[in-house]
Amino acid sequence: xxxxxVGINDRYAKIKEFAAIAGLLLLALISRSYHLGxxxxxxxxxxSVTKASERYTSLINPAYYILILxxxxxxxxxxxxxxxxxxxxxxxxxxxxxxxxxxxxGRNCALFGSMLIVLSSWHLWYSQFSRFYSGVFxxxxxxxxxxxxxxxxxxxxxxxxxxxxxxxxxxxxVSSIIVAVSCFLFSIFILFTKKSSLNQFLxxxxxIYFALGxxxxxxxxxxxxxxxxxxxGSGQLWGYGPAKLTLQIIKYMQAPLVxxxxxxxxxxxxxxxxxxxxxxxCLMIPVIALLVGSIFVSIRPDYMFYAYPLVFxxxxxxxxxxxxxxLGYGITSLxxxxxxxxxxxxxxxxxxxxxxxxxxxxxxxxxxxxxRSNDKVMSYVTELDYYMNxxxxxxxxxxxxxxxxxxxxxxxxxxDGKNERLWIILPIRRGPLAKNLEAWLFKNASLVWRxxxxxYDYTIEGYQVFLADAR
Length: 471
What we know:
This protein is α/β, with parallel strands linked by helices. The protein contains 19 helices and 5 strands. Helix 2 crosses helix 3, helix 9 packs across helix 13 (273-293) and helix 12 (255-268) packs across helix 14. It starts with a helix and ends with a strand.
């Protein structure tokens, strides 16, 4: 009778597990595939589509270009096929996150974390965006997971998989090298911590990782220095400084999630100082790298997307502690969990409403209908050129439209001819345009078209078209 009950319980547990995995995959596929091919390409997606045949053989970030070319070969070149690899990687990453991290933080914690990924607007965006970041997230999660497993086991196979998945992540985007740097530093902490304080962390694989890390650094340092020098010399001006970048990191990750992750870190201290230290190092090193790097080059929060899975691990851990009575049993716990979900929904919903309500093809159609043979076009919207169906004279940009240091009036003087009109297409963001640019537009041009995306969060997006007519 006992054996029969055990068998029934085992089957029930397997059914629950299968249902959880299948449910997460279904939610991920539905949310990530919705309107995948209907929205126009935007921003750097254009680069993915037009440069894939050149970049797939490069040593820098070739992985997504290989996948996108394969998708084009099977399905042709279109918006849907361009985003298909990102959608698949983004969708699969959610059940895989659950299957892996439940072995470390428990089933319910991993389930909470997975559901938060489903709701994450940042993860949702890159699961429907034809760039490499969904792959960065997927392989970043696997790299950290197997490294953590390796540090609590003497099996080298876990260390092998940690390094293998990290290498693949680097081929998606070189920023994933910080995964290795973070793990390298944590390995040093393990080596210099007394055995009695390690709390199930072992030194054997830490020694191997440290040794391989030293060798890898010597071999790869010239390569990464070359990338850094080239990046510094690119002259890009769209990045954030350290102060604004800190706020942007919180905004992109979503404040409720960051708060939950911090609570999870406090809770995980009960498991042991070394457990908490793992998350502190593997999250703070990427943040520090971004803040320091932003002083010298243009950097976005996207460049720490590989560490984003750890935020979900901590946030899921916190919500599970809330569920089991951290803030008291019953209605209080339920209210806190529901509050987190409700606070994340506006950005998630706005992802769909924003993309459904704003399409650059509306801009191109308007300009095509009003364009004259002598007109010139200066566009600060990357995706516009891809959708223009007429021959037109394209004028180079004068600078970043939010940069007050650009001499806008002087730059525009060359386009004040008597027999030409100048179309100026600009994005709309929450921040104002450069003062000198705005002043020139008010004086010399007319606003002829403008549209905002429909959103229910803090973000403001849109397009605006100005027409300067010297006659």
